Amino acid sequence: MIVATMPDxxxxxxxxMHRGARGDQGAFRELYALTSPQLxxxxxxxxxxxxxxxxxxxxxxxxxxxxxxxxSASKGRVMTWLVTIARNRALDQLRSIKxxxxxxxxxxxxxxxxxxxxxxxxxxxxxxxxxxEGLSDGQRRGVQLAYLDGxxxxxxxxxxRAPLGTVKAWVRRGLAALRRCLEGGA
Amino acid sequence: MxxxxxxxxxxxxxxxIGTLSAPARAWVxxxxxxxxxxxxxxVGWQDRLTRWVDLLAPVAPRDEVWxxxxxxxAAPSAAAPAPLPIASPPPVSAPAAPTAARGRPAAFWRxxxxxxxxxxxxxxxxxxxxxxxxxxxxxxxxxxxxxxxPVWIVDARxxxxxxxxxxxxxxxxxxxxxxxxxxxxxxGPPVSLGLLPATGQTEVALGPGQGSRLTTAAGIAVSxxxxxxxxxxxxxxxxxxQAVLVRT
Lengths: 186, 248
Fold this sequence. Notes:
The structure holds 2 protein chains of 2 kinds.
Chain A: H1 6-21, H2 25-47, H3 50-66, H4 78-99, H5 123-133, H6 137-147, H7 153-160, H8 164-184
Helix pairs in contact in A: 1-2, 2-3, 2-4, 3-4, 5-8, 6-8, 7-8
Chain B: H1 5-17, H2 22-32, H3 36-55, H4 63-74, H5 106-126, E1 139-144, E2 150-157, E3 162-170, E4 177-184, E5 191-195, E6 199-205, H6 210-216, E7 219-226, E8 239-243, E9 246-247
Helix pairs in contact in B: 1-3
């Protein structure tokens, strides 16, 4: 697969988003085709069920369509904007399924395999992968469970069998170390 | 409230990664509408973290998703779509002092700001976490999936014969099925310990003598059973997870 280099891809997505904002459904469809597989990968990880993940994906894109005119570079890359919309909806969904049991009768879908596919992804993403490698085990798992899985500090503490204070420190220091690593280009 | 650079970055990171409590999140969201620097810090973090999504193995949505979306796009848009709960920089002309504030006693503002600052710090640092005091477990186990991610946590208080089973965050069985928990006694057939919750937490009271048998058991396991549990008293479906109960 040929992956466009990142600035090109970001510019392409921004162009599609702006055309979508002017009501160009074809452009929006292309935006969907280019970004939805990554978004669905994240949503399936967070929600662990394809049907729920696809529902949130659909809502997120509908919301992006209606708010497309509000997108600007100050909101970050297009992918950042879309991920934020989708992730916020998934987090809301997670908070509500934790409160109320789900209705049964829906397929359990196999989860995607790995949190990091070696060699996959554009160069900036691989820089992040390299920086993640540099974190301590607790920091990396803490940050991962919080970001990719949408767990709260308490849930991470339970999952990693660690005191709450330790988990908070892992996540906080893990994020700080990531930032230093990404900005230092190390 | 003035945020120094380090605290601003910490709050922005916690907001972007999603670990803030609901009140702290609401505080940040209110602040984002008028604090361009905090807004830029949040977007910076979102930009950095979003790279992670590019590292995930992509999953193509089913065609139905786009088809349903296309129908929804064609429909006349709702009168006013709900506002997006994401960072939005304030209007460019924002820095003027709030006009509504003029004429109010300065002391009132000082008090309010001091209170808000203190509350925000408490929220951002303590994150408003209130944990129910529960007796500490004597034994514990984690059922994890193939990627090492937790599915259920088992916390046992064996002297009291209680097990707390918690799904993290959700483990939904296929239609008409249930996940059942088994003790695997050394040299004996599996013994059912009840059904596992799909979400949230359930408490199980162990039968007489089961607590002490658990301390010597070879492990615990989860099988996929018909709704309501195994009809035979022994696992009838595949064993999907295994774990060892360890002393805390």
